[in-house]
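Example (one chain per record):
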Amino acid sequence: MKKAGLYIRVSTLEQAQEGYSVGEQKERLIAFCKAHDWLIADIYVDGGYTGSNLDRPAIQKLISDVDKLDLVLVYKLDRLSRSQRDTLYLIEEIFLPNSVDFVSMNESFDTGTPFGRAMIGILSVFAQLEREQIKERTRMGKIARAKEGLHHGGFFFPIGYDYVAGKLTINDYEAVQVRKIYDWYLEGMSPIKIADRLRSEGYTNRYSSWSELANGTGVLRTLCNDVYLGTLRYDDVVFENAHEPIVTQEQFEKVKVMREKRHEIYGDTAYVSKYLLVGMLFCARCGARYHVKHNYGDYKYYECYSRAQTSKRMAKADSCDNKNWRLEDLENRVEGEVSRLLFTKGYFDKLVKEHSKTLGKKAKTLDEATIIRGKIAECEKQISKLMDLFQSDSIPADVISVRIDKIYREKVALKEQLEKIEPTVPKKDFNAVGVAEMLNDLSSVWKSADQTEKRLILEALINRITLDDEAVNIEWSFL
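Predicted structure:
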């Protein structure tokens, strides 16, 4: 007797819709199992969760239990997911490799049959289309609100305002801070110094103290946002006089002119980090960036965001055991590599030779990958032709099913092979003579450069630095 896992999902908007409530789905799925003599192993329910992603507790529990099941049953395909990518991921990467069939009761599809496996991807496209239509309707609704002078809502709204009955109304305490930001900037203070001054004078806002809004970026966003003129924007819709302004048009224009002048002088590096390597460091184990951690006594450390868990947006995993680097040690190590590049005779030539060997290996792998991708495309064409024959009734369905099954298995095997050898696309070759001349110019200023100048040089030489325990891998921009 087959063991079935019943998956049920309802979003908030669907709770009251006929046939979509938890009770309705459960009743119909249980009856379906009884009719097919399937044993119900477990029932997984996600109540009030969107189908646009897999961040749902019950679907995650189902994934972890997949080795205990013979099949997964849902009432309708979009109950599993409204994302084509997630649907195909669950079926092709989770269910089928573990010999678990997927059955959608409403559409009468069963991946236990070759025809069902071929059709499931086609049907999931329509689920994706429905989701995109919902997103478009939501977008149009927000545009309509903007035209009426109503804020689009949400948890985050600009510092200086409260959100009351669809409108932005001035928060007097925060509005004082916004006016000070504009006044101080026009007096010549930088965003970082403005943030430091707000912090030192004890000012806070609803999100944090200004010191926690990363190196003046909160101040800079305030200076760039025309919401403080009473303007409301959503996509291409601009609605003026939507709410009470906090600063004048004259102040805003003067700040805009000053920002443009600073950009002309300093370029995109006007507000660079005060730390040498921030923005360049990546974890080899989880892919997250590194940031500077301060709470180790008198020392500072570079730490992976996934290990720190101080920012969910920046973390790439729930945890990471990659090494913390003492700031001075890592910066000295990188500076040492740069010094070797600039001052050690023959080191640049060595890097060029190693780069050439790598390009040769990647080119060979790239050719293999191209051939495999071509074979996968051919399999997809053959399946499409067989589907056309099925619709025309020119060949018996059982014959077509056997052919589709054979081609489908070939496609799966090719995709697995491609994943093992898929290379990154190599960059175009470079002018070695030109790079050597650039390095010669940089060597004349490196030793006397201050922290800001060294960071500018590093940004010119390095794309990224990947850390894996003691290993420090530098990806040079000229290679």
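Caption: The chain has four domains: 3-134, 161-269, 281-337, 347-476.
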